Amino acid sequence: MKRYWALSLLVFDVLAAMLAWFIFYVTRATWLEHKMFIPNGTFYLGISLIPLAYLLLYYLQGTYLNVRRLYRLKIIQLTAISAVIGSILIFFILLLDDDVISYRDYYFSFAVLFISHFFITLIPRLALITFMINRLKRANNGFSTVIIGGSERALHIFNEINHQTRNVNSFIGYVNVNGSDHALSREMPYLGHVTALDEILSNHHIDEIIVAIESSDHDRLQKILVKINDLRIIVKVLPDMYELLSGSLKMTNIYGALFIELNRDVMPLWQQAIKRFLDISLSVLAIIMLLPMYIISAILVKFSSPGPIFFLQERIGLNNKPFQIIKFRTMYLNSEANGPQLSSSNDSRITPVGRFMRKTRLDEFPQFINVILGHMSLVGPRPERQFYIDQIVQHEPQYVLLNRVRPGITSWGQVKYGYAENVEQMLDRMKYDLLYINNRSIALDLKILFYTVAIVIKAKGK
Questions:
Q1: Percent of the chain with pLDDT over 90
Q2: What does residue 247 show for φ and ψ, rounded to 5 degrees?
Q3: Which of 76, 234, 368, 384 is the most buried (most CB within 10 A)?
Q4: pLDDT of residue 255
Q5: CB 258, CB 239: distance < 8 Å
Q6: CATH 3.40.50.720 region(s) of the chain?
Q7: How far is CA 57 from CA 149, 196, 200, 236, in A?
Q8: What is the C-alpha to C-alpha distance for residues 331 and 40, in angstroms, rounded to an integer?
Q9: What's the CA angle centered on 400, arms 395 and 405, to 5 degrees?
Q10: Poorest-confidence range of 168-182, 200-214, 225-239?
Q11: Are 154 and 184 in contact (CB under 8 A)?
């Protein structure tokens, strides 16, 4: 269903861009040039490429990433921004060299271009979003929602939400926190106790979770939030007075129960789109430009010791999905015959060539392939093996939060701390990676990449 709405919006956008360009071109020919409209090369070039350019712009805005979460005011905002940017680019690329009698013709051309594209795009978008919202309001068509908490207060919250005319939640059940609280049992199915939340989340498709306990109960709330290891699930909690006064969390419901939505991902959708675009484009560019370095590194690894050139190892990535990480081999063959081991500064398992490659991070360069395949990003928490994750979460359960984003070739923790030699150092490095997740932005990624390049050039890696 998500793909259906995204595809429908995409088709409407393509047709709107083509129609807007047609209307603009006819208007310019008849009103400004005072001649009959006859399609020419510029017209066909525009009607072919301009819709594609707008689709790229919409993609960078994040318009198609989660269409079901769009609302009318948001779609007006996105359309206005894209119409302004698109009209300016088209004007300077295709129209600025036109022969005109007066600069007023330029202003008229730009106004027609902007107005035609804005309204022709906006009207079908609003119609589609309105139709989609009305569908979501129907029984069992809304966002699949689970309530954590079964007390009388949870029942009151359910009734308040369920009787709203703007309700788009479809409740599939509740998860109990206290053994004696089952007030919701007469309204929805009982899914189990909060201790089985991991299993409940894996067995049901869930869009939203409403935590119907006091957010001032921080210990219990933190344990619950750590279990919800999926950024696609929206979590809403009841605010306490500190959160209301600090303004640190976002309120999302102005008509019914007072909820605040936890800002699980601080990176806006348009920045996420740009980040993935940069990941792929820069990785392809890096592989092409560094091809001589790949060849030299491969030769050095091959002659440094017997064994393969590349080292493949299973790591845990986005949403806890395993993948094979690709690195240049820096250790002697069968270095982990006695089980998983972390490397140290004076590790005898590391070859002389491998020691240099680790200092310069050259061993990480094949991971550009992982980035292109979607396993990794250029910047993100370093991926770890399940063997060590199991040990770390016994000391700090929040470590699982790192898997809510794509792991990276480099990270804030890698730049600030380097390779970890034991679980304690992993926990120290985790602090930087958690800080990164809570402050993600394109600007921060570029800063981390800059420092990583400096480490490679200076060979100061750990």
A1: 28
A2: 70, 25
A3: 368
A4: 45
A5: yes
A6: 143-261
A7: 42, 43, 38, 31
A8: 64
A9: 150
A10: 225-239
A11: yes
- Average pLDDT estimate for 298-314: 91
**pLDDT tens-digit map of 210-228:** 888 765 555 677 777 777 7
What's the rounded mean pLDDT across residues 320-345?
Answer: 82
CATH of domain 143-261: 3.40.50.720
In the prediction, which pLDDT does 196 show?
Answer: 87
Beta pairing partners, 210? 147, 236
CA geometry: angle at 264 spanning 128 and 172, to 5°?
60
Q: First-to-last CA distance in the chain?
A: 48
Cα 209–214–217 angle (5° rounding)?
Answer: 105
Cα 79 from Cα 141, distance rounded (Å): 27
Structure confidence at residue 226 (pLDDT): 76
Q: Is the pLDDT of residue 245 over 50?
A: no
- For residue 230, the model assigns a pLDDT of 65
Decide: residue 276, CB within 10 A, 0-12 exposed, 13-18 middle, 19+ buried.
middle
Question: Do 61 and 82 meet the contact criterion of CB atoms below 8 Å apart?
Answer: yes
To the question of pTM greater than 0.90 for the whole model, the response is: no
Could you report the per-residue pLDDT of 61-116, keeping only the tens digit for each? Answer: 888 888 888 889 989 999 999 999 998 888 777 665 555 555 676 677 788 889 99
* C-alpha dist (Å) from residue 62 to 13, 130, 201: 14, 19, 26
Question: Any bridge partners for residue 125, and if so which?
Answer: none
Quote the CA–CA distance of 22 and 42 in Å, as a whole number: 11
Other Cβ atoms within 10 Å of 163 Cβ, number: 9
